[in-house]
Amino acid sequence: MSEKENLNFRIGKVSLTKGEVDKRAQLKRAPRPRIASTIVLTCGDPKNPKILMGQRSKKHDFMPSVYVFPGGRVDRADSYAKFYGALSARTERILEAAYSPRKSRAIVLASIRETWEETRLLLGKSVKESDRNLNHASYDAFREANLRPDISGIEVFGRAITPPHRHKRFDAWFFHKHLERNSLPKIGDSAELLNVGWFTFDEIKELELQRATKMMLRILKDYLKAERPPNTIFLSKAIKGQMEATRFPDFEE
Fold first, then answer.
1. Which of 240, 249, 236, 121 has the alpha carbon at shortest distance from 185?
2. Cα(53)–Cα(56) distance, rounded to whole angstroms?
3. What is the pLDDT of residues 59-74, one digit of tens each?
4. What percent of the chain has pLDDT over 70?
5. 157-170 residues labelled b (16+ CB within 10 A) or e (exposed)
6. What pLDDT is stored for residue 62 in this prediction?
7. How confident is the model at residue 136 (pLDDT cuts 50, 70, 90)?
8. Contact 7, 230 (CB under 8 A)
C-alpha cells in the first residue's frame, strides 16, 4: 500500500455543542485559521514510551477539561528567538511547502515555548552567552537558565486545519521528539494545563480526550512504527462539510 493510500480515508462529520453553534452564528464569515504548534514528547522505552500530556482547564471555551499535548498559537517572538541546532531536511522541506523558512522555524520554536509555559519543561541546550529575546517572558526563562531552545531532533508528523463551521480555527502542526534520558524530566502544572504527567498509550485510553487528539494519537502510533519518517505527513481538513484525511505536501507518485 502506498503512502497516499494508507491515509486517504474519510473522517466523517464533525459534531458541535450548542455553545459552539451559537458562537459561530455570531460571525458573518468563517474565521481565518491561526497558525498553531503542538509537540508530542516521548521518553523511555521507544516501544512503549511515556507521553507528556496535561488537562485543559474547564474554564476554556475551546476544548475544556480534555487532555492534550502541550502547544498553542505561534507568537511574533517565535520568529526572532535565538535557538540551538537545526531542523532535519525533511521537516524543513515539509514546513516550507506552506510557509517561509523564518515562519517554519517559528512554528517549531512555538511548540518549545508552549511546552515551557504549559508544563514547565525547558527543551534547551546550554550556551555560554545569555540571550535577550524581545523581553518575552518565556524566552527570558531560557536565558535565565543559560539555555537556548533546542530545535534539533524534532520531526513533523501531522497537520490539522479546523473546519470553517467552528468559531475558532487553527492551522495546527504536530511535531514529535523522543527524549533520550534515563529518567523522566521534571514537569509541573500551569495556568493552561492541570494534572500534567507522563502517560503510556494504554494509560491515555483512560483519559478524557477530544476527537482530534485521538486521531493524532493514531497517526503518531503509525509514525513511530515506521522504520524512517515518511516523505509526507498526515493532513486533516474539511472538504464539502466532511473532514478528510490526505497527505501534505501533495503526494508525488
1. 121
2. 10
3. 655 566 899 999 999 9
4. 79
5. bbbbbbbeebbebb
6. 58
7. confident
8. no
pLDDT at 59: 65
The residues facing 198 across adjacent strands are 52
The span from the CA of 158 to the CA of 176, in Å, is 9
Euclidean distance between CA atoms 114 and 120, whole angstroms:
9
Peptide bond between residue 229 and the one before it cis (omega within 30 degrees of 0): no
Ordered domains of the chain (ranges, CATH): 3-248 (3.90.79.10)
* Exposed / middle / buried, residue 120 (Cβ in 10 Å: 0-12, 13-18, 19+): middle
Closest CA to 12 of 251, 252, 245: 245
Average model confidence (pLDDT) for the chain?
A: 85
